[in-house]
Amino acid sequence: MRHTFHNRAAQCPEAGVSLLEILIAVSLLGIGFTAIFSGFSTALRTIERVDHYAQVTDFAVNKLNELEVDPDLEPGRQLSGVSDSGLRWQATTALADERPALLGAGREQVAVHVH
Q1: From start to end of 9-115, where are the E strands?
Q2: Tens of pLDDT, residues 71-81
Q3: What Cα–Cα distance (Å) separates residue 66 from each residue in 12, 61, 72, 112?
Q4: Could you tell me the pTM of the whole model?
């Protein structure tokens, strides 16, 4: 009994995947994954930044509302403090309109800066 071995590569030149094709495919996958993970990292940093801005904005609005109803607030006053979450704030008041309002006092302008 005689066995004959046939060279399949000689019969069909595209019979398999070459090492070069595998290296190119792995390189392209690596580049693709790097771009995807870089995008995820950037998105997470952006989400953290936007969350911080939202927290600061909410605090500033709440502080303005709090100062607006303060009966002891007078023009030319400077206030400052630190919130429970560690945000530092400064508020200054100024006389915005000297014409008397309904209650007999001028209108005040309040500026709040949050750091």
Answers
A1: 78-82, 88-97, 107-114
A2: 888 888 898 99
A3: 82, 9, 12, 11
A4: 0.63
The residue to which tokens 């004959």 are assigned: 4
The secondary structure of residue 71, as a DSSP letter, is T
User: Vertex 74, ends 109 and 67: CA angle to 5°?
Assistant: 60
Q: Show the tokens assigned to 13.
A: 């030149």
Give the whole-angstrom CA distance, residue 28 versus residue 68: 60
Longest dimension (CA), the chain: 120
pLDDT digits (tens, 9 = 90+) for 40-70: 999 999 999 999 999 999 999 999 999 888 8
Indicate the length of the chain as a whole number: 115
CA-CA distance, 8 to 15, in Å (whole number)?
A: 7
